[in-house]
Design goal:
The complex is a heterodimer of chains A (357) and B (257). Chain A is mainly α. Chain A folds into two domains: 92 residues, no CATH class; 211 residues, Orthogonal Bundle (MetI-like fold), CATH 1.10.3720. Chain A contains 14 helices and no strands. In chain A, α3 crosses α14 and α13 packs antiparallel against α14. Chain A is extended and about 80 Å long. Chain B has one domain: Rossmann fold. In chain B, the strands form two sheets. Chain B has a six-stranded mixed sheet, sandwiched between helices. In chain B, strands 1, 2, 3, 5 and 6 form a five-stranded antiparallel sheet that branches. The chains are: A mainly alpha (357), B alpha/beta (257). The interface between A and B is medium-sized, with 25 and 33 residues.
Amino acid sequence: MSNAQAVERPKNAEPWTKLGPKVKIASIITIALPSSIFALTLFVTGIDFMAGLLTIFLPLQLLVGALAGFYSFGRRGIMDGLLLVATFFLSLFVLVLLTSVLWSVFEAGFRAMSPHFIYQNNVYVSGQTGLEIGGVGHAILGTIITVGISTIITVPLGVATAVYLTETREKGRGVIRTLLQAMSALPSVVAGLFIFSMLILSGWSGYSGLMGSLALIPLMLPTISRVAEESLRLVPADLRNGALALGAPAYRAFFMVTLPAAKSGIVTAILLGIARVIGETAPILLTVAFANGTNINPLEGGMTTLPGYIFTFIILGDQTSIARAWGAALVLLVFVGILFAAARIASAPKKAKKRSA
Amino acid sequence: MSNFHLETKDINVWFGARHVLKDVNLQFPNNKVTALIGPSGCGKSTFIRTLNRMHELIPGAGLSGEVRLDGQDIYGEAVDPVDVRIKIGMVFQKPNPFPTMSIKDNVMSGIKLSGVSRSDTADLVEVSLKRAAMWNEVKDRLSDPAISLSGGQQQRLCIARSLAMNPEVLLMDEPCSALDPGSTRRIEETILELKENVTIVIVTHNMQQAQRISDQTAFFLAEDNTPGYVVEFGETQQIFYGPIDPRTNEYVNGRFG
């Protein structure tokens, strides 16, 4: 037998990346020419950067892009060139916006940042206290407790709703779906007011972490169930049928085949649900109130959450308080970042082992 | 009581108000292979799905008539569809191994999914994969994900998965339509071996395949928005070489469809 022998992959095994001299020259000119002219104009006339960007650079770049497209590919290249420049410019625009938001949080937040800012609470802190005392430790715990409790309650509810919508043929599905849509438009302050008037004003309970968790549930539920519904819907009917044809009762087919296949989508649903409520301020202020000390009992007494902390300190108005609020914003941002990264890693599909040749 | 293993009596099928299958009476004797042939849209696949109660999972599905397994109507009042599907296995047109499970777990999936307790599970993986003629190909990579297999292997894995349940009847809905000739040949060989113990019903568009593997053949036809029905049913040799109905003759000789 003379089997074909495997050969090592050559360095450039991507012939589609070879562009030819014409396209190369056009690309270099498109990148270099408008920006150098723009830089020169800025230098010579001292025109405002943003104004120059929009009045000189963008039209020039579009023109050069279109011409380069025409030079490389003829008439159909014009539209290609224009679209490429427009796409690139708009992506850059959004990227700059996003980065500047992140940057301002990091820059302003770092002033308050120190190890004790993470674990201390703010008993003994007033507007006159320096940044060397006090922190958001109690607010981090408060956020974890309130959001944690509502996640534990909402995830089963939300996933069960999604299962009802996708796996059954009940007549109530249309109504439920409409209600979920309506719920997702519910202003968060209304959810807070509802719990406040029903459970707190009536004297049934005082301000507490649990009340906050309850207020977050109606905000989280529509997000979780709608995203979970989409991910369950994406599981091919063939798989469900395969399981049922083997004699699986519906519940086993769901838990052993459908749910594992939709796992990463369900995790995304939970993440988006958490993201929806972790920054909520209004319902928290109405139901959890505020506390300077650390309170880890969700059943009794006020708590502070990170958004509540930010809100309280930013309206105090003095320099150190504002710095503290920015610091808390930074902590919240990093907190969410870590949470998302962890969940993404946990839900990543196991890499399929290399197919044996 | 009849002496047929599986038998249908006046099966009529509707989707919503549309009548798609009319008065199907077929008999499937023990350990014989029956081929269902006919042009697309004539109701073969719909019919085969009525035989293990997969039909009722389609929204808007309707049915009248009886499907008797060993004389018992599987649509009887107290019959659990789960029990029916354990006895009557099914292989689908597109290979559908469970993507989150390994090759081994796929073979065992029926046992776990249906919750039947079996004493002989120890070498069930090996036995089932051997019956589906793929043990030698996969014995060294049983823990690999099932989706790492080729299309033909995936389909044979699905057959092995059904066989692990030790079904009395195996329904196959165009099992080779997505496969190359080599894989098709292996599946056909598997079918001929399985015949020893299992009653097989197979939908196929491939006339040669029907002739190679089946003992009897039913020709389905649906004309101009009328319900599909069985034009002719008999021994495979007779359907292909001495059909009574001229339309059967035209179809098996490739003149329409």
